[in-house]
């Protein structure tokens, strides 16, 4: 695993944490520059995740003789157990402490659809979201996995084109024609997976090399583009800068090597992503009942998310992944990436 990618995964996860802190505690009302960045730009963490997902899945499968079925089993074994666990945990918490989750409405059919990664209207009335609302990104991830699994039937040099065609068919033609999942898959954010695959192809060919000043310039240009924004589709406004960040950091990989801290933070990023809303909602509940300073509560939340994310990765993610691989008879090289998201 590239340490530079791990660092970006961690950054992306914590940007989303900050974004949801501003949403849950301040309803996105910013009072200073940092709060503005988190409230207005923190959501780009998802776009970075999607680009990284395309990159890592391409690199992890490039030299392995994977059948589509085996690939999908490994992806489900890696992604689903932790997501299912925290979805069910949320359901239990809603039943046990309903005042903590006033916006959440439980319906068995919706819970089941959520766990099957099928986009559906949330009973709370705020759009097409699963019970654990951050799981909306996993619905896109699973679509990407299915399409990439089909692309495994061709040589790796043609996989970008195959996935692009399949995404166009599903999201551009079939989805709109049949109003698939209420239009959920029409979002142009899916193009960011293709950007990641493209970066993976460049990396495989040894083209992600340059003097340090060039990727550093790329990072500055990407950050400036993100900050100023533009009235264009999301794949252009945030996807292109995210791709520039990813390729710039990959180019700087020699300067990241050996950092176990960054590797650990990247490893924990998926669990951080799944856990953080539950912790922040509990923190908001405490603030509402005690009047404590939100930032003092945030400090406690950060510690809980860090510790919980680390424990979740070590014992839940890794443990279930290895167990399911053994049960399903798919022992072999691991493909571990964030997904995000």
Automatic annotation (TrEMBL):
It is an enzyme of class 2 (transferase). Keywords: Acyltransferase, Membrane, Transferase, Transmembrane, Transmembrane helix. Its EC number is 2.3.-.-. It comes from Pseudomonas salmasensis. GO terms for molecular function: acyltransferase activity. Residues 4-306 form the Acyltransferase domain. This is Acyltransferase. The chain crosses the membrane at residues 42-62, 83-101, 134-153, 160-178, 184-203, 212-230, 268-287, 293-316. The keyword Aminoacyl-tRNA synthetase does not apply. It holds the Pfam family Acyl_transf_3. The keyword Methyltransferase does not apply.
